[in-house]
């Protein structure tokens, strides 16, 4: 697995805006449909992102509350999915805490015992755990069938999602304090639901159930309590609970995480013990269940075994710094929270809840045969993301919020220990909207994302998003940046060693301009002269055939600027034969010499080549070197070519981020020096050029031409 990003080179991937971020923030999304927001090309500043998130959330809540059919179904306490109906109760206790009500979902016993039994068990569950609730909303859900698995048939899972989403949107439930608990058949349900929907819950309590062979990998960040009677031998519930505790002990010892306990109630049968004593009275449980299982040790201790009290210790962290995901231990959660508010054609861009886990998104990725265990972590201090276990997976999104990483700085990414390089991201309206509509959870409303892909050969697959950059390292749409891992890797990781990317001495700043000359050259030369700044212009041979090109070369050379070679027609040199490649650079060199004269200095400058797009491999480098050409790239680029005049503020924002980052973090790798890529045809650059120069000077850099840099 490889990526075309340098292991230490900061690649700033600029994201264009269709309107200024400030004016967008001022509009507060007024009058914009979710369909329009999902197509938005607008990025926003980090300073605005919190306010925009809040506005989107208020907009979504307003849409939900105006959805009369959805609200009626909820208020009638009977949620529908397909031909299944989930009835539920609702009891509110205490004052609403500042962050919202805790929400408890309680699952009743019964199972394959007939409708009357299940109904009576549901009635009992409406109050069974209620005395333990101090402040919160308590709902007992009726199983959607009368079968043994009535709480976890396929239709159950989207109905739990709907119940949670509606409670958050209409009852001010705290999305980070949602709990699930159940007894007997309800315990069976908790065993199944918690691992399959682990990122929904702050914690779970299973009482008197059987796990029916479920994997626990996904409980890495979800505290899990198991309670069982010592003598509850039916289906081996008693011993299975202890065996599960041992299994979770092993996972915790191996990986960390997996907060869990098991309470084996002394001499308890299936239902002769208390997990619902609202007073918190001490209950007698086995001190060491594992020793009881292995050696019949019955030493006891007393504990408050009230399930609600145990759950209340925990609050979900929606952005844990480390997660473990077995995507095959999943549920058919196929209904999104907000897809109903979109045109059907747009709804398809949403990932389904079963394809999401905390801050990871597999989208429609087909999972490989066999087991899959994805491990993901981030380090805020290092601004780093590490992934492993992606064998057989070709695409995964990493969803980002400012609570996780510094989104104003480059983020490094590795997969299976291989450093994929650095990428920058920009908060944007589309990602915020999409992630909100997917789960209806404001805590899972993400600001930005990185899409990591795998390909067998070099490719930029932009099937989902519109490209905005011509440069190979700019794996960005206007909504997100993406890292593409592919074989072979042509850039940075395997960049030819003789290709220049930085100056040889510290504190130097080589300002370079590509693709010219353009009609803007007189103003560019005026600003450079006024500021006393030498620059290097990589010109295209086919731009030197008219009077404008001739005048530019002569004026630029007279003012002390360097004129170098950007090929004749801006073709990808990697796709050319040796003869055609040499023709591209030799014809431009000849034209420069024809206009400026055949001095050794001019000839050497004209033999300094910046490959179009920066594309170069060992083959092209060797061919150029054998013919006395020197290839040059850069270590700072803002994608200024994509910005219009009214986006000059964005250009300045990118420039300041670049300067701050390059000054602070590339010291060892690049000798405190910067080779900066610009385009004189960019109206945004023309508008900000003088201000940028002044800030570079203030930062302590000295401007030089490229030949004085290398």
How large is the count of helical segments?
Answer: 21
CATH architectural category of the largest domain:
3-Layer(aba) Sandwich
How large, in whole angstroms, is the Cα Rg?
31 Å
Output the strand order for the largest sheet.
Answer: 3-5-4-6-7-8-9
- Total number of β-strand segments? 29
Mind describing the biggest β-sheet?
A: 7 strands, mixed
Arithmetic mean of pLDDT? 86
Whole-number total of structural domains: 3
Which structural class do the helices and strands define?
alpha/beta
**General shape:** elongated
- The CATH superfamily of the largest domain appears as Alpha/Beta hydrolase fold, catalytic domain
Question: Which parts are unreliable, with pLDDT below 50 for 5 consecutive residues or more?
Answer: 1-26, 456-495
CATH fold descriptor of the largest domain: Rossmann fold
- End-to-end separation in angstroms reads 32 Å
The level of helicity is: 25-40%
* CATH class assignment of the largest domain: Alpha Beta
